[in-house]
Amino acid sequence: MSAPYAAPDDFRTAVLDAGLLVASAVDGVYQLSGEFEDVLQGLQRHLGSQRVDHDAPRRWFPPVLPRAEFLRTDYVASFPDLVGSVDVFRGSDAEHKALLGDLEQGCDWTQHLEPAEIVLSSAGCHSLYATLPAQIPDEASRAEICGFVFRHESGPDPTRLQSFRMYEFVLVGTPEQALGHRDSWMPRALAVLEGLGLRPRVEVAHDPFFGRAGRMLVAGQVEAALKYEFVVDITDATGTAIASANYQQDHFGRTFSLTTGDGQPAHGACMAFGLERTTLALYAAHGLDLAAWPADVRAALGC
Ligand code: AMP
Ligand code: ZN
Hints:
Elements: H1 8-17, E1 21-23, E2 30-32, H2 34-48, E3 58-61, E4 64-66, H3 67-72, H4 75-78, E5 85-88, H5 93-105, E6 114-120, E7 141-150, E8 163-173, H6 175-195, E9 201-205, H7 211-223, E10 227-232, E11 240-249, H8 251-255, E12 267-274, H9 275-286, H10 295-301
Parallel strand pairs: 3-7
Antiparallel strand pairs: 1-2, 4-6, 5-6, 7-8, 8-12, 9-10, 10-11, 11-12
The structure holds adenosine monophosphate and zinc ion.
């Protein structure tokens, strides 16, 4: 069966013509229409309503992350090409004058800036780990989180955004608890997406690790089946991952010094939904006219 659109460009033209997204001068950066945001908010509430851990704290993160925490995630080692670092001005009046001079001359004014104590968030759950208790309780630490993420993506595909939101269900605990969390979420995530009329296939996946060292990481991630993606067909060109179920082993336990009762580094897992991408997948599946969507889907999303 063919996808609703032949190529990413066709889908982009369609969502722009429908006014759902408004393009900026930069690929991957769009304004969202009020209707699009209403659907996205409905999706966010619907995902939240699938929670099974009713006592897990729910947290909405700002789009920035303390630089020191970001470095502990090792993201810059694996994905330097996706990172967004923030620069700020801390100069004197004289420095400001020099900055304005460079700006006027068309020179590089950013040389007068310096790295801030924050970076743009790299993944939803990265903001969580530094705020967990160092000693993870026997029943594990769970959280339901949402936050803006930045990735320096390029290209005309409107599902490949630079700034987007992730909604995640996270667990940090023993290896068994973490794997159990991920594996119990996979059928639940499939059911909730299917209930919205999407037909994702679940695939063993890998992250786009950078460079030669990254190729080894990819092999390890695939072999150990650490990551599964929920992939839908929006275009004939390539599948689009709208959600992922991840087992991070003890990576964040080690780098954030989180231990379980036996003194071992804690293991982590998260079920992550991309809110903009899933909303785009809904428009691709049901058409660009919200009024014509199946009534049960509209009811589930409250729009
Ligand atoms: P990941 O941590 O890479 O597995 O991403 C989790 C989810 O975020 C993906 O399944 C997508 O739904 C979404 N996502 C990742 N990258 C992008 C992007 N560049 N634009 C929009 N959504 C994205
Ligand atoms: Zn996560």
